Amino acid sequence: MQKHLRIIHCVMCILTIFLSLGCTGSLFKNYGRITLDTNVTNAFEKYHVNPNYNYYISGSDVYPDAIIGLDNALTLEPDLWKPVEMTPKKLCELVQDMQFKVKDLSLNLVLYGFAMFDDKGKQIGVWYSILEAKTSLSMKDDHTVIIITPDIDTYLNYEGGDSHGSSVHKKRSTQQWPVSGHC
């Protein structure tokens, strides 16, 4: 009897695993990926604007939570992203302001570039933010991409020090954000 129950239990476990994998596969089939890429980091930090991309920011106009460049053949959803007429000068200002904000908040925060890929593995754009900025990317159809904006508190988590005690915050009550330097 016990042996019979064990066999039934094993069969049910295996069925559950296969059903879960099947559901997961169809549930996430349209999701793309965002991968850390030093070439993208270098491109942002050298203020290279790709003419085949439309650029958007999320968050503050001064120090965005993220900057993305998306293949201009694609439509972006949702409309929470702010389109930016990107030039090397504008990209320089945004990147330098983000770098200043990160340095002001924490010795441990770093800005990174990421390559964005569609559900078929084709690169469709670039992303620049701190590693802690959370998002997801999925394809609604062949020409529409859904990229979730980072949480509104991406930087606020580090104001006054982060919850892990790893950041150092210097109050700048009398200083203003600098006008971007070498742009």
Structure description:
The protein is α+β, with helices and mostly antiparallel strands and 183 residues long. The protein has a domain at 31-158. It has 3 helices and 9 strands. Strands 1-6-7-3-2-5 form a 6-stranded antiparallel sheet, covered by helices on one side. The chain has a 3-stranded mixed sheet with strand order 4-9-8, with no helix packed on it. The model is unreliable at 8-27 and 161-178 (pLDDT under 50).
Task: Lay out the secondary structure.
Blueprint: H1 2-27, E1 33-36, H2 38-45, E2 53-59, E3 64-71, E4 75-77, E5 82-84, H3 88-105, E6 111-117, E7 123-130, E8 137-141, E9 144-147
Count of DSSP E strands?
Answer: 9
Shape: globular
Could you state the order of secondary-structure elements as H and E? HEHEEEEHEEEE
First-residue to last-residue Cα separation: 78 Å
Summarize the structure.
The chain has 183 residues and is an alpha+beta fold. It has three helices and nine strands; from the N terminus they run αβαββββαββββ. The longest helix has 26 residues.
Fill in the keyword field for this structure:
globular, 28% helix, 6-stranded antiparallel sheet, 3-stranded mixed sheet, 183 residues
